[in-house]
Amino acid sequence: MQNTGDTRYDWQVVTVTEVMVQSERDSHEMNQTVTHTRVPMNIPVHVDEEHSISVMYDWISGETYQVRVGSARGNYWLLRNAVAPL
Question: Mean pLDDT over residues 30-48, rounded?
Fold first, then answer.
């Protein structure tokens, strides 16, 4: 995770509040499934900082996943086609 926000707009800190994970084969729409795994967290990321986030999940090597990150402001970022390492 990297916060590339602009301090002029008071986006100095983004707080990651959840990460959701699901297998691509289960569904192609994160918002319409009940099979995802939600991991709540409270991680502040200041402007120009980077943080690694570890998610405890039963990853299957080589499987394709969707990962959605949510912030305290209610913004979400969806990464599709993320492949678990072999």
Answer: 74
What 8-state DSSP symbol labels residue 25? Answer: T
Mean pLDDT of the chain: 77
> What 8-state DSSP symbol labels residue 27?
-
Q: Which tokens in the block code for residue 79? A: 């990464």
Report which of 59, 52, 65 is spatially closest to residue 86, judged by C-alpha positions. Answer: 59
- pLDDT at position 11 is 56
What would the mean pLDDT of 52-69 be, rounded to a whole number? 85
- In the chain, count of helices (H) and strands (E)? 0, 4
Q: Tell me, what DSSP letter sits at residue 28?
A: S
